Amino acid sequence: MKMVRIGFIGVGGMAQHHMKTLQNMEGVQLTAIFDINEERAKEVSAQFGSKTYASAEALLDSGEVDGVYICTPPFAREGIEEAAAKRGIHLLSEKPIGLDMEVVRRKEQIIKESGIIHTSGYCLRYLDIVQQAKEYLKDKAIHLVMSYRFGGIPPVKWWLMMEQSGGQLVEQSTHQLDLIRYLAGGVKEVSAIHEQRHLREVDPDATAYDVGTVSFVLESGAIGNITSTCLASYVGKGEIEFFGHQFYLSLNGSTLRIVDDEQDITIKSKVDFYYEQNKTFVEAIRTGNQGLLLGDFSDAADTLEVTLAANEAAETRKTVSLQLSRAGI
Predict the structure, then answer these.
(1) Sign of CA dihedral 326, 134, 169, 67
(2) Could you report the per-residue pLDDT of 3-41, keeping only the tens digit for each?
(3) pLDDT, tens digit (0-9, with 9 covering 90-100), for 77-96
(4) Rounded-to-integer distance, Cα 191 and Cα 225, Å
(5) What are the structural domains of the chain?
(6) Long-range contact set of residues 250-253: C-beta below 8 Å, sequence gap at least 24
(7) What residues pair up with 266 in beta bridges, in sequence order?
(8) What is the pTM (predicted TM-score) of this model?
């Protein structure tokens, strides 16, 4: 089996979760690490037997990586994906992939022209129940989509700053929005209300909102809503509900429910979606087959565009129309 050498730029909690799943796979070697926090980089390097590098460029120039995971926050992505693509290094760019659509679209073009294997961190697509939902919905007329993402406040300063995280829809609820796009098609327009109710009591410098709701119209004409809060200290959950004239389908965490004239069934997921995503990325690198992946950098850019449009709609209190490069999938 051909060994696939993997590097990491940014080694926070998400990166380390990826590393732990990769460590359990045959034919994968964790070879290279860079993080601006040198102490953390050394600790993680010792844990996973990887070499640390002084910069992202040094890692990419090392000749020791076939693929790289970009796990830095969205405000700290300047030039990294482009540098990997220009060196022919395959890429998994964690979500969100940026905060400026002009910059992200330029990255997208460079990545596509490079011919590398490329994907993003939309791991929920790899749930077995998501694939079952996609198969069920493929010939259904969806009329209404309802979704939410509730949880607590992440313990990092940058997440509280709108200019660094983009807010909860961009940084967290983007997973639910991406699944809506994946299963129901592209978004045509959005309107939104974002408010800050409590966050400055947590941090007086906070600029992000802590409650928000977004209404949208899909390319199909279906309408929907996605509501988010980071003030749900006592409960964390996320669900998407699809309503049609003769069916109901819900994705609630690791559970799928389908109700129609012939059935009312509940199916529990049997897979670790992080493992499935990482295994597929490695196999795509090994075989040179981009088609194995359930999403690419362009998909991530399209999802980001919807979330940033929602931010614009919330700021202006006006409906924002979208002209995506690819409406849905």
Answers:
(1) negative
(2) 999 999 999 999 999 999 999 899 999 999 999 999 999
(3) 999 999 999 999 999 999 99
(4) 10
(5) 4-123+274-294 (3.40.50.720), 127-270+304-321 (3.30.360.10)
(6) 251/129, 251/130, 251/133, 251/179
(7) 257
(8) 0.96
